[in-house]
Amino acid sequence: MNATQICWWGRKAFDPKLEYVQSLRGTLCDSVAMMTTTVDRSRNCLMLLFAVTASMACVAGSGSNLLGINYGTSGNNLPMPSQVVTLIQSTIFTKVKVFDVNPDILHAFANTGIEIVIEIPNGEVGNLINVDQAQQWVAGNVAAYLPATRITVLSVGNEVLMTEDEVLISQLVPVMQNLHTALVSLGLDSQVKISSAHSLSILNNSVPPSAGIFQPGLPSDVLEPMLKFLSQTGAPFMANAYPYFGYLSNPIPEALAYALFTSSKGYTDPQTNLQYSNMFDAMLDALFSAMTVMGYKDVDIVVTETGWPSAGDSNETAASLENAQTYNGNLIKHIQANGGTPLKPNSTVEAYVFALFNEDLKPGPTSERNYGLFFPDMAPVYNAGVSANQTVCTGASTQASHKWCVPRHNSSAEQLQLTINYACGRGDVDCTPIEVNQPCYLPNSIEAHASFAMNSYFQKQGGNTWDCDFNSTGVIVGTDPSYGSCIYLSC
């Protein structure tokens, strides 16, 4: 598409008065096409490739180990820290970000193995500009809890570069260096890293992702030294990435689908020809491009905040239960797939969902108090697929669900081949049954093989309506397509 400049704004730095892109329309590519540009259409070669891909994904590790949750305490009705720990242990989250040093919380996470990121509030950053004070702070607030509480990162301030507080901005890198020096003196620098979380509004350009650059107005005597510090210490660049606000900047249906990971069209970067099926990946690659321009492509990116509100004011129509469930559910699946991003396909993405609870004391519009996956009584706001005990497909078809996904009769062979490639390319989808001499190989037709692959993907993803779209080639039916010994999944 002919893209005008888009900046994907962080949650707290969103400015509705800025000028945004006017359209996502244009020449958009099928999201499944990016899975197939170099794939041999031969069935045997495809299956061999999928087997190798799945094996590599297993070696890379579980995607659940890349998922974290933001645990805020701006509420007057939240559960005790010990209860919160029990709740988190019942989920797939293995990492937690907290927003200050709370002894009760840090003690509660002792001996759980859960990794902790501690954010140092903006108002406390200035207290650590003195080296001795930084040393004392680390001794009392980090070393005192290690190794029982697994503190892994100290995040200095939040979105400091966009605060317009010149004193605070000037203190950012010196405080990061002071804290690192304190960790070195205690022999803890290999266990605990120092970073700082930033809104993606620090980008001046983010479309196409390959042309991402930082705002020219950012102080060069802060940004470059910070990136150098992260590179030298092996710490990540922390980013707050919210496709929710990207959609608000351009509220059209195509943009919503792109933000929710449900786009059947996507976007092709005209400079790299890389195809993007979602806004989240485009945000991260724009940031990576900006760091690359400055010579710091070796710095990893960690998404410290991302989420979608489940309720809002009357003018916040995108803040809905359905959209929040769709975004967070698809985000989690995306992270678990270990697929990296188009610019960095062999990397992993670590992300912290915002947030654990709906917090009733947060200021601002209603949406700010409705980012939580759970209510304060620990009941889920919706099912985002975060339970560690999610129902798993048994592989045996039953009549209980009465829901299967099959191809539309007017779908072309080319479309269905792309769909097979996409569905079977997922590490959690088993397409072995449609190989030669397997139960579902006959009839040996594209439509029959696509039917099995599409349904397997549909069931594995949770049986949601959007999981059977496949660029409008799929349709949900109530009749079990199983035949003979070819049994279709039904969850």
Walk me through what this model shows:
By secondary structure, the protein is of the alpha/beta class. The protein is 32% helix and 13% strand. It has 13 helices and 14 strands. The chain has helices at 43-60, 81-89, 103-108, 122-125, 131-143, 166-185, 220-233, 243-248, 253-259, 279-293, 321-336, 413-424, 446-460, and strands spanning 67-71, 95-98, 115-120, 150-158, 193-199, 203-205, 213-214, 237-240, 267-268, 275-276, 301-306, 350-353, 404-407, 474-477. The protein is globular, with a radius of gyration of 23 Å.
Keywords:
491 residues; two-stranded antiparallel ribbon; globular; alpha/beta; disordered N terminus; 8-stranded parallel barrel
Q: Strand percentage, roughly?
A: 5-15%
The level of helicity is 25-40%
Structural class: alpha/beta
Provide the gyration radius in Å.
23 Å
Query: How many beta-strand segments?
Result: 14
Mean pLDDT, as a whole number? 85
Describe the secondary structure blueprint for this structure.
Layout (H helix, E strand, L loop, with lengths): L42 H18 L6 E5 L9 H9 L5 E4 L4 H6 L6 E6 L1 H4 L5 H13 L6 E9 L7 H20 L7 E7 L3 E3 L7 E2 L5 H14 L3 E4 L2 H6 L4 H7 L7 E2 L6 E2 L2 H15 L7 E6 L14 H16 L13 E4 L50 E4 L5 H12 L21 H15 L13 E4 L14
Parallel strand pairs: 1-2, 1-12, 2-3, 3-4, 4-5, 5-8, 8-11, 11-12
Antiparallel strand pairs: 6-7, 9-10, 13-14
Helix pairs in contact: 5-6, 6-7, 12-13
